[in-house]
């Protein structure tokens, strides 16, 4: 399989339109070591011209423009995107659906019932799209452990795995989690036998996740924040990383071994990639000590246009 990182930043992107944090100022000024990033999305292909879009970012038009493979040009109106699979109902993962309204057929959308509910009511993208191309929904089961395929990519088998994270701020379920508010994916290429675990929003690595992580050859996991207090410390928010459903890279205060770096250290012989990076995160400085620390631990940082072949 080929995975293309279309957008490696968290909500807001990098730089964020109204942000003057050190990172956003630096990337805007063109300082060496800082690379702009669009909002969170990947695309998966089986090596053919067909792609599954995972998350539909508000930056989707830029991302498609920057990824010619997504436009195979087989007819007057065409796209390589066969289906859209959503990890959650957050704005940074869903609002790009509106930019796909000119489609000739309904958008083939794969979400959990919880995400469908939010996109029908709280953020009514589905009812809105019914006035354009429409949406054809395939519910993702949150209880079964069976892999599914998305036609015509029959050699890509996917398992959707419920995660602990958070429903979006607009959701009535923000503070009372439903199973299926957030999922991760175990993506398998049955030709190569390789598996990728993808979880851009992950608050806790619970023990039931470990078997999936163990099976994978490549991990692409939540890289939003360096520290639990990053937004508070920098004066941008009163929310902790965990309030927003994200596990920071450094340990939580007084909880040795709890952070993403320490937890990834326990998992051997895999490629480890952080994705969904918030613009305040110091790992965005490619020459900084935080990035060097990740490198020492064998952890990569996703960038827009990154390709993973597995
Ligand atoms: C999140 O995952 O917490 C988001 O990036 C927030 C947002 O999109 O506003
Ligand atoms: Mn997000
Ligand atoms: Zn910023």
Q: List the ions, cofactors and other small molecules found in this model.
A: D-malate, manganese (II) ion, zinc ion
Mean pLDDT over the full residue set: 97
**Could you name the ranges where pLDDT drops below 50 across 5 or more consecutive residues?**
none
CATH superfamily membership = Ribonuclease Z/Hydroxyacylglutathione hydrolase-like
Number of strands: 14
Strand fraction band? Answer: 15-25%
Could you describe the 3D structure shown?
By secondary structure, the protein is an alpha/beta fold. The chain has a single domain, classed as Ribonuclease Z/Hydroxyacylglutathione hydrolase-like (Metallo-beta-lactamase, Chain A). The protein has a seven-stranded mixed sheet with strand order 6-5-4-3-2-1-14. A seven-stranded mixed sheet has the order 7-8-9-10-11-12-13. A hairpin with a 5-residue loop joins strand 9 and strand 10. The longest helix is centred in the middle third of the chain and has 8 residues. The site of D-malate has 7 residues, from helix 3.
């Amino acid at each position: 399989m080929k995975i293309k990182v279309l957008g490696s930043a968290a909500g807001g992107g990098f730089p964020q339109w109204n942000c003057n944090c050190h990172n956003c100022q630096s990337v805007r000024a063109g300082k060496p070591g800082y690379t702009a990033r669009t909002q969170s999305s990947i695309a998966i292909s089986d090596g053919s011209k067909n792609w599954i879009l995972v998350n539909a970012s508000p930056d989707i038009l830029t991302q498609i423009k920057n990824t010619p493979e997504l436009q195979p040009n087989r007819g007057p109106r065409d796209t390589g995107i066969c289906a859209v699979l959503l990890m959650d109902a957050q704005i940074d993962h869903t609002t790009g659906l509106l930019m796909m309204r000119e489609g000739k057929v309904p958008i083939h959308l794969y979400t959990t019932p919880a995400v469908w509910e939010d996109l029908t009511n709280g953020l009514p993208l589905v009812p809105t799209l019914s006035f354009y191309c429409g949406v054809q929904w395939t519910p993702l089961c949150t209880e079964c452990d069976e892999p599914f395929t998305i036609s015509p990519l029959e050699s890509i088998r996917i398992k959707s795995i419920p995660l602990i994270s958070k429903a979006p701020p607009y959701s009535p379920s923000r503070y009372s989690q439903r199973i299926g508010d957030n999922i991760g994916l175990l993506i398998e290429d049955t030709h190569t036998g390789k598996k990728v675990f993808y979880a851009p929003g992950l608050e806790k690595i619970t023990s039931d996740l470990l078997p999936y992580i163990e099976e994978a050859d490549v991990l692409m996991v939540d890289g939003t924040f360096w520290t639990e207090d990053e937004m508070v410390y920098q004066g941008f928010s009163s929310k902790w990383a965990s309030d927003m459903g994200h596990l920071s890279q450094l340990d939580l205060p007084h909880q040795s071994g709890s952070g993403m770096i320490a937890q990834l250290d326990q998992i051997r012989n895999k490629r480890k990639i952080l994705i969904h990076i918030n613009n305040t995160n110091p790992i965005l400085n490619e020459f900084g000590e935080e990035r060097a620390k990740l490198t020492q631990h064998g952890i990569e940082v996703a960038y827009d246009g990154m390709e993973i072949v597995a």
